[in-house]
Known about the structure:
about 575 residues, alpha/beta, Lambda Exonuclease, Chain A, CATH 3.30.420.10, 3 domains, seven-stranded mixed sheet, five-stranded mixed sheet, disordered N terminus, DNA-binding
Amino acid sequence: MAQQLWRADSQHPQDAGRRMTTPHLSKSLLNNYRQCPRRLWLEMQDRAARKKGLAPVAQAVYSADTTKRFLDGHVIGRIAQACWSEGVDIEKASWITDEDTGQRQRDLNYATHLTYQWMQDQRRPLFEATFQHQNLLVMADVMVPRRHGHRVYWQMIEVKSSTTPKDYHITDLATQAWVAEQSGVDLDSVALLLVNKGFELHTAGDYTGLLGLHDDPDLQAQVRQAQQQMPTTLRGAAQTLALRQEPRKHQPGDQCTSPFECPYIGHCTEKTTGQTTGKTAKQTTPQPVPIRFYNDRGGAKAQTLIDAGHTDLRQVPPATIARLWNGSTDTHGVNQRLAQAVRTGRVVMDRAGAQAALQTLSWPVQHLDFETISFIAPVWPGTQSGQHIPFQYSLHRQAQSGQVLGHAEFLDTTGQDPRRALAEQLVKDIDPRCTVLAWNDSFERAVIRDLAEQFAELRKPLMRIHDQVQDLLPIVRRHYFHPNMAQAEGSTFSIKTVLPCMAAHLQYSQLGTVQNGGEAQLAYLLAAAPPGAEKEPGQTITPAERQQARKDLLAYCGLDTEAMVEIVKSLK
DNA sequence: TATGTCCCGGGATAACTATA
DNA sequence: TATAGTTATCCCGGGACATA
Length: 572
């Protein structure tokens, strides 16, 4: 006998709109809890405040990187749905118009009801099928009916804009399958629909082969295993929600960025460091300098010092520091310089060594920086998913004296494949006699290699440029350390960390909306969007916005190479 | 002679550093 | 998300030395 679709104790969807209480938790909220209870708590406070039209308790801010990832996810979601032409989009059908206010809004109880109805039909795949159990609501990306003899089972498919399966994919599937099964759905399997690495677009708009189904037995077992945690997780989340006070005992840590960036990082770090942040603390308040090293995997070296009772990096004797790295210096002596810089509060610089390194370059040098865009679903024929496609570069020419001899730049925001024009211009702009300097050159070299592979007739000059490229970063790393770099928020040797130490008059924070690579990608998408494109529903991108995005892009990329100019100057 | 301990170097690997 | 490069760490074998 076929198992009934809905359990007796679950509320009958017939009167869903009336009797069902709105669930308190969704899959993503549960994920927030898994990542950090404090995040869940803040998110719920935020929602409650928004509902009442009040100011949020904490300001949630998503970085450009995360925003871009969300965009990618939406695109992949749409492409996935196109794989099932018969599919019914529950989400789309669940928007109703409020008779009083005339506003359109989504009715999740209605979505649950629709899901129930279509599942009884047993023939068509469902998108965003909505299930509720207890106070938890989930939406499954795709549900596919599969007939075994007389019975119909369902395969639950989770679509991810990722090329490899991740742990959190398993927990996602576990949560959704658990809720669906608790509400009586017969699942025969779960699956992930992932992006096939290396997919190349041949015909514009044809994404056949972009996505691949993963439903091996190992996945089934992992999801089953993860489901066992569900009751515990739900109980924990409920306890967190019942708290009246923010659970501050959850202090910032690795969980703030892994597996996802938390939008409340700003809120939590502000609260914990209080008024004495690193920026404002001067000699007046001798706060202990936390023990941290460069490239110290998992903080192992730092931990040995902490275990030995050290609390302030400035108080650790140099010999003790040296002993950490087998009694000598670490590979390039970076951490000896780091410790010395922190101890003395002064810059450590091996000027002679830096000069010797710079001496080996072919002057004048040209500082090169690319901005690239990548699409998980490639838009231009001949490009692959995830490929970094350059749309902009900046090139500063600098004499050995330090003097700037010229600046060239390129920016294509036509929305067409920018590679050809960029490659041709680059070949014209690069002087074959000069060293080309990049910051972390592997990236620029890979981009140039790609271009050389793409355009056979430009291969020779492009590969010549490729061979001209050298890296400025290791020269700095081996000969320079500024005390501020030891406590930098970002990477120790990121150009955005190093620049303000070497040339205080140049600041990324003075730039407009584009202050890092992720923001550059978003600005590009804005500037190069097709005519009539909308930023938000109902908000067409204006020519002024496009112009501003272009301006910000030029300023940002230009500052990256100008930074390199200044860095070379201060090494001399 | 057999066995155990320590250290060192080399190779593989995982994790981290950068970039967008 | 991805890639390329770097580096800490693990593991292993070999050599030196001590001990049974």
